[in-house]
Amino acid sequence: MKVLMINGSPRKNGNTSLALAQMAKIFDAEGIDTETVQVGNEDIRGCIACHYCDEHGRCAFDDLVNETAAKFEECDGLIIASPVYYGSANGTLISFLDRLFYSTRFDKTMKAAASVAAARRGGITATYDELNKYPAICGMPIATGQYWNGVHGREAGEAAGDEEGLQQMRTLARNMVFLMKSIKLGKEAYGIPPKEEFHRTNFIR
Predict the structure, then answer these.
(1) How many Cα neighbours within 13 Å face the side chain of 175?
(2) Theoretical Cys-Cys bridge with 124: which of 8, 26, 150, 192, CB 3.0 to 4.6 Å?
(3) In whole angstroms, what is the distance from residue 66 CA to residue 58 CA?
(4) 34 in Cβ contact with 109 (< 8 Å)
């Protein structure tokens, strides 16, 4: 099994990375492979609603989004992590996620997911809610821990002193392992839940 970690921080060794490293230790101990995609320091433009992906199944802008698409399809679990900027996720990460989720047309149902935020003080819960909206709209079960997933620290490495936050990351990882394994067994025994034909109802018709 494999977990894909999306790091929305521009700092490769910042507090967001520290949080993900705590999770990676648990995954490794449980025999789960991990791969991290560093997004925050890339030049990622936002979606322009050109609908190129409708016809071609990939984004018109051939960058890290298209490079990550196959990894996303193959993974059993997805973690989205970001530092907090003005009570929100990193803008580059949001542009990346908008295009990644919209341009990939494979069925994401029952891929486990989790979101993580890192902040000096406030904004973690708002960012956590924001990031959870991506898997939630795709039928991806969201793993939780013992609190809203986040660590606190301003300068790189300061989150190492947030003992509760680091414990939360380990708890989250263990719960995610359990969820992924349970989903795997459920698929083998029962398959994926049947889907009805999608009925799109716009507010203005």
Answers:
(1) 18
(2) 150
(3) 6
(4) no
Q: Which residue has the higher pLDDT, 200 or 110?
A: 110
In this structure, is residue 201 part of a structural domain? no
Q: Would you say residue 199 lies in a domain?
A: no
Residue with tokens 């960058």: 63
- What is the pLDDT averaged over residues 186-194? 94
Q: Does some domain include residue 170?
A: yes
Q: Are 81 and 115 in contact (CB under 8 A)?
A: yes
Residue 199 tokens, joined:
């009925």
Q: How far, in Å, CA of 170 to CA of 176, rounded? A: 10
Domain of residue 69, CATH code: 3.40.50.360
Pairing of strands 77-85, 33-38: unpaired
What is the number of structural domains in the chain?
A: 1
Integer CA distances (angstroms), 8 to 90, 118, 163, in order: 6, 10, 22
For strands 77-85 and 88-89, give the pairing. Answer: antiparallel
Containing domain of residue 20, as a range?
Answer: 2-190
- Rounded to the nearest 5°, which phi and psi values hold at 24? -60, -35
φ and ψ of 79, to 5 deg? -120, 130
- On the question of pLDDT at 180 being above 80, the answer is yes
* Enclosing H/E stretch for 9: none
